[in-house]
Design goal:
single chain; 381 residues; alpha/beta; Rossmann fold; nine-stranded mixed β-sheet; 13 helices; 9 strands
């Protein structure tokens, strides 16, 4: 079974895989470390929880060569026992050895406990109990990665196999199909008066038959399925950092996806990447990093909260570092503002994503909420 339908014969592109530059992984964990340190300061959950210090569990459901997990260890965000990876590409497992993840675990057998060769959209063994981690393989503190994108749907045209049936059973539990059907049932997109992440007050939901799921899964972009999988794996209150193509944020026919995100998570930040970020992997696709916090059970948010937007024009270490500094100023300030940052560094002529500001709100006015002229951070380059 092919996970992604594509005419490209090269294996990486057939799988929709575009491996991640280390600068991007470093940036993701710089942001997550800001969250972790604040969490630790307020709750003493992590390293400061002496003498029984523990560490965040991290999973990459499309781990590829393992750059995100390697970075998690190098930056001391967590420890080897708390990292997990999944990938459908059998050949990448040797890469995990090559980048010294094997050294971190001490043995190939221990490495195999934490890395799984399977389709990233499938559930892991949720009955497995880990003595050092709550939630087993069902939920994690942080879900990070650069999942496949660019392919159209899951291919069920091949002869039915146990793997195909397992994937179909798993996808039948995905909620995004019901969101998409609701959009199709309505016939038109909901009127968006709230901006990028506007939602209907009472969004409709529909259950689907296996036949409907099969048909819909063959036409839905693979990155949308992975976006839901990332949210599934995050524990309530957990963190998600995912690289996504900008179409999810900008296209009118992806409104149901943005509505789904808003129902499941708080948008903390969106950082637009330069078009050439993944050129070494063979794509010039325009992408962004979406940072989310999964909502806790029964948690409801007003859509008037602030979130951080930034556009990085050049994929350089100093450029990423400047955005980290701006984000830390924003995140640690009481009201989500840039009190100590010069005004010229707030606002952008090319915000990310490129959604228009509401009437009367200029690009240098640091105000707004989720999709309502949200705060924008510019990087002078």
């Amino acid at each position: 079974m092919n996970m992604v339908k594509s005419d490209d014969k090269q294996k990486k592109q057939d799988l929709g895989i575009f491996y991640t530059p280390p600068e991007v992984a470093d940036f993701v964990f710089d942001i997550l470390t800001i969250w972790k340190e604040r969490d630790d300061m307020e709750t003493a959950r992590w390293q400061s929880h002496a003498p029984k210090a523990h560490f965040p569990s991290v999973i990459d459901p499309a781990v590829g060569e393992g750059v995100f997990l390697k970075t998690a260890l190098e930056k001391n965000f967590t420890k080897p026992n708390y990292i997990f990876g999944v990938d459908i590409d059998e050949s990448v497992k040797e890469k995990w050895v090559d980048i010294n993840l094997l050294k971190s675990f001490g043995s190939r057998a221990e490495l195999d406990v934490h890395f799984f060769h399977q389709n990233g959209l499938l559930p892991l063994d949720e009955t497995k109990i880990l003595r050092y981690k709550t939630g087993g393989l069902k939920e994690f503190d942080a879900v990070v990665g650069n999942p496949p994108y660019g392919g159209v749907g899951v291919d069920f045209n091949e002869r039915a196999s146990p793997e195909t049936m397992s994937l179909l059973e798993a996808l039948a539990r995905y909620e995004i199909f019901g969101c998409k059907k609701a959009k199709q049932k309505n016939g038109v997109e909901p009127q968006s008066t709230g901006g990028l992440f506007a939602v209907q007050e009472t969004p409709a939901r529909y259950s689907l038959s296996i036949r409907e799921v099969t048909k819909m899964a063959e036409g839905i972009p693979i990155e949308i399925l992975f976006l839901e999988r990332f949210l599934q794996l995050a524990k309530p209150g957990g963190w998600v950092a995912i690289v996504i193509p900008d179409g999810i944020l900008a296209n009118s026919n992806a409104h149901y996806v943005r509505e789904f995100i808003t129902e499941k998570a708080k948008v903390e930040a969106i950082v637009s990447l330069p078009r050439g970020t993944f050129k070494q992997a063979g794509t010039s696709a325009k992408t962004s990093i979406l940072f989310l916090r999964k909502l806790k059970e029964n948690e409801k948010l007003s859509l008037d909260y602030r979130f951080f937007l930034a556009s990085i024009e050049v994929a350089r270490k100093d450029a990423f570092q400047k955005v980290v500094e701006l984000y830390e100023e924003f995140y640690t300030s009481p009201n989500g503002t840039f009190a100590n940052v010069p005004r010229t560094k707030v606002g952008s002529a090319s915000p990310a994503p490129r959604a228009p500001l509401p009437t009367g709100q200029g690009p240098n006015e640091p105000q707004g909420g989720a999709g309502r002229g949200a705060l924008r951070a510019a990087l002078p380059v």
